[in-house]
Each structure stands twice: as C-alpha cells, then as structure tokens.
Design a protein that fits this description.
- By secondary structure, the chain is an alpha/beta fold.
- 52% of the residues lie in helices and 15% in strands.
- A five-stranded parallel sheet has the order 4-8-7-5-6.
- The relative contact order is 0.13.
C-alpha cells in the first residue's frame, strides 16, 4: 500500500466512525462534559454494551480517549477538531437535504416550534456580549455548565428555571443556549420566559458549535 492509499484509508476510518447517528449522539454528549459509559447509556439511551462498542470505534479513530477514575473509565473528546467536522457535516445536511428543516421542526411541540425563529446568531451574540447589552443563560445541567460555558453566562438549568426567574433582569434582553441547535431546552426557556413578558431569544446553535468556531469557553 502506498502512502496516499494509507492516508485515504485513515481518513475513511475517521469518516466511518462519524457515519453513525448514535456515535454522533455520543459525541454531542461528550462535547458537554466527560462521561462514563453507564451515564452515556442512560442519557442516549442505549444498552451499555452498545455504547461501549461505539466508544471503541471512536477511540480507534482517535476521536475520543479515556482516563481511569476509580473503577470507571471516563471518556472525553480528544480535541475540538471533531466538533469542527460535525459542525460542517450538520451545515451540509441543512443546506443540501431538504427534509432536515422539517425534521428539526418536528422535535418541538407546536408552541415551541412557533418560537424557534426567534433566534440570535453567533455574530449578534458576540456583539451583545462585547457591548454588555444582554443577559446570557445556559440552560444545561450544572455539571455540563461547570465543564465549560460561554463566558459571562449564568447557569439556569431548565428544570430549575422557574425558581430563578425573578433573578433575571427585565431591563435587558435574555439569550438562552443549550447543547446544540436541536436541543429542546433553549426552546422551552424561550417559551416560558416569553409568556412571562421577558424579552428573550435563543442562540441558534449551542456550546459545541461555539467551541467548534474556536471561541473562548470558561471552566469552573
């Protein structure tokens, strides 16, 4: 085998590792925070044996690695290059496969779907952060927030949002974000706060895409 063939085989191995929807789901979860196999299996959900097989395929392709913590192996992404690749694949799918938009709308209830066009893009979000003209809320669970979040964001997990609403300012626009463009948490936050009279939009992507663009992330 010549060098070119070897290189193309290696590229094909990475592409094959990414060419599975369940592995993409695992990668999205690991983009939020490192995780053991059993937690991934519960979150997706899939049998632990299946998740282990998918992780081994990702590991052979160099996309994830594991470290031991007590009796558990904790998996995490090797680096953010994987997120860049997936972000590109997502954009290609949205641009070239006509049913993707329809399927995205089907993720949400009718009320939530009516809110999904009320978005803010990356450039607008960066400008709002720089000018201090918005309040940014991260509606993911606390453990994911601690592992990494957009600088200046306030953690407001969706299942606790109702209890902290009074702490959110009414004088500034609120922007909610979560795990990615198809995560329902930010839609729920927009729906809830809009009904209560707050000015709120959602970031049209999520933390993995933010990281894929090479933008700064805070860790606690």
């Amino acid at each position: 085998m010549n060098n070119k063939s070897g290189i193309l085989n290696a590229v094909a191995q990475v592409a094959k590792a990414l060419g599975n929807r369940q592995r993409l789901d695992i990668i999205e979860r690991l983009a939020q925070a490192p995780s053991p196999v059993d937690s991934l299996a519960k979150a997706i959900p899939l049998p632990i044996a299946n998740v282990s097989q998918h992780l081994q395929a990702l590991r052979r392709a160099g996309l994830v690695h594991a470290t031991r913590s007590g009796k558990q192996m904790i998996y995490q992404l090797t680096d953010d290059k994987t997120l860049i690749a997936i972000n590109t694949l997502r954009q290609l799918a949205e641009e070239h496969i006509s049913d993707v938009e329809k399927m995205a709308k089907g993720l949400f209830s009718q009320d939530e779907a009516s809110q999904q066009l009320d978005t803010i893009n990356k450039e607008e979000l960066l400008a709002g952060i720089a000018n201090n003209t918005l309040t940014l809320i991260d509606v993911r669970p606390l453990n994911e927030f601690k592992f990494g979040h957009i600088p200046g964001a306030i953690n407001a997990p969706i299942d606790e949002l109702e209890s902290i609403i009074t702490k959110l300012p009414r004088s500034a626009e609120i922007v909610a974000y979560c795990r990615g463009p198809y995560c329902t948490f930010s839609h729920q936050a927009v729906l809830m706060l809009t009904k209560l009279g707050y000015s709120i939009r959602r970031y049209d992507e999520g933390l993995p895409q933010w990281r894929a663009y090479g933008l700064p992330v805070e860790v606690e």
